[in-house]
Amino acid sequence: MHDLDAFTNEPLVVAGRKIDGRTIDAKRFRTLATELASQLQHDPNPAERVLLVNAATLAMLCERFAADLLEGKEVNEENYRRNLQSLGNVMIKLGMAAKSRDVTKRDRAGQDDFGAALIEANTRSAPTSEIN
After folding, report:
1. Distance from C-alpha of 94 to C-alpha of 86, rounded to nearest angstrom
2. What is the tens place of the pLDDT at every residue in 52-75?
3. Distance (Å, rounded) from C-alpha 76 to C-alpha 53?
4. Beta-carbon neighbour count of residue 66 at 10 Å?
5. Boundaries of every domain in the chain
């Protein structure tokens, strides 16, 4: 189906090194990479393959931080946030997540007539404060 599906039956080679695919981490990596590839709904091109490998790696790092945190272990929160942000960026590049946007007053127009009417009614009925 997808190019990364071959990971399940062939030796795992990363950075030119053959990795023992029987380890828990290698199995988890294969699962993540395969699941992410299936979300693309097409065979990944070489650039997408690089991004998928990085996404699977970052996802594993984030999972480790989460597991440590849940076990009451100390975690480096800054490193966790950086990995999480990097994972989000890779997911955006792959088209698997939407980029956050700044929601300002100019974006407050409703997406439909009902939403627009609610926003307008709330804006009109908002109390104004007077300075004496």
Report:
1. 12
2. 999 999 999 999 999 999 999 999
3. 23
4. 13
5. 3-93
HEC states along 11-73? CEEECCEEECCCCHHHHHHHHHHHHHHHHHCCCCCHHHHHHHHHHHHHHHHHHHHHHHHHCCC
Task: Indicate the length of the chain as a whole number.
Answer: 132
* Rounded CA separation 60/64 (Å): 6
Burial class (CB in 10 A: 0-12, 13-18, 19+), 62: middle
Cα→Cα distances 3→9, 19, 27, 62, 112, Å: 12, 18, 17, 25, 41
Instruction: Give 3-50 pLDDT, tens digit per residue.
Output: 445 455 567 788 888 888 889 999 999 999 999 999 988 888 999 999
**What is the token pair recorded at 118?**
């609610």
Q: What is residue 95's three-state secondary structure?
A: coil
Return the DSSP state at 111. Answer: S
User: What helix, strand, coil percent values describe the chain, rounded to 5?
Assistant: 60, 5, 35
